[in-house]
Design a protein that fits this description.
219 residues; alpha/beta; binds D-xylitol-5-phosphate; binds zinc ion; TIM Barrel; 19% strand; 8-stranded parallel sheet
């Protein structure tokens, strides 16, 4: 399974956002990860649908992957679909009916995905696996970039890979060349990285370093 690398725009330079979107696109990364925070589900605010639209305008070919850290993501699905989201991830801990909302995401022409927080047991997502194309295992407590990878979350990746070999399994938070190797060895095939990619002058080299780690994991 080819590994995808997704820079998280949360770590970009907001004074040069358009340039950083282009820098990420040209780095050889596979898609852009957009972190939406509501200051309720997580103790922080980030940005909203206008930034998703900006990404579509600046680099229309760069796939837009939207992570909704929101208590009521169901109220914003159309908004983000219309803004250009191509995958929408909603949390299993959110206050909405996932049996209804995951099919609604698909009906909007968007790829549905489910997310679980570090403290949430993997069994919590099992009832929804047939309704989504991807599962995101958070490897930090959501809300901020630049935190350390929680390796204790990796057994969840292994359990999901064994149970649903066809699904994309993503990790998000604290990903660098070393933790990427561990995650891919355990069964992840999508890696979100914010600080590790955006905080380097040469993002293409950092993407290559992650790809080299993934290749090493395959050996
Ligand atoms: C955390 C976000 C992550 C974050 C990752 O709430 O979901 O996507 O941007 O940032 P790093 O890679 O810096 O841990
Ligand atoms: Zn994220």
């Amino acid at each position: 399974m080819a590994v995808q690398i997704l820079p998280s725009l949360l770590a970009a330079d907001y004074g040069a956002l358009a340039a950083d979107i282009t820098r990420a696109f040209r780095s050889g990364a596979d898609a852009l990860h957009l972190d939406i925070m509501d200051a309720h589900f997580v103790p922080n605010l980030s940005f909203g649908p206008d930034i998703v639209k900006l990404c579509r305008r600046v680099e229309p070919e760069f796939y837009r992957h939207v992570h909704l850290m929101m208590t009521r993501p169901d109220l914003y699905l159309e908004v983000f679909a219309n803004a250009g989201a191509q995958t929408i991830q909603i949390h299993v801990e959110a206050d909405c009916d996932l049996h209804a909302e995951l099919p609604r995401i698909r009906a909007l022409g968007v790829r549905p995905a489910i997310v679980l927080n570090p403290e949430t047991p993997v069994e919590a997502v099992y009832p929804y696996l047939a309704l989504c194309d991807e599962v995101l295992v958070m490897t930090v407590h959501p809300g901020y970039g630049g935190q350390s990878f929680i390796a204790d979350c990796l057994p969840k990746v292994a359990a999901l890979r064994a149970r649903a070999p066809h699904l994309d399994i993503m990790v998000d938070g604290g990903v660098n060349a070393q933790t990427a190797l561990d995650a891919v060895r355990t069964g992840a095939n999508q890696l979100v990285a914010g600080s590790f990619l955006f905080k380097q002058a040469d993002m293409a080299s950092a993407v290559s370093a992650l790809r080299a780690a993934c290749d090493a994991a395959a050996c």
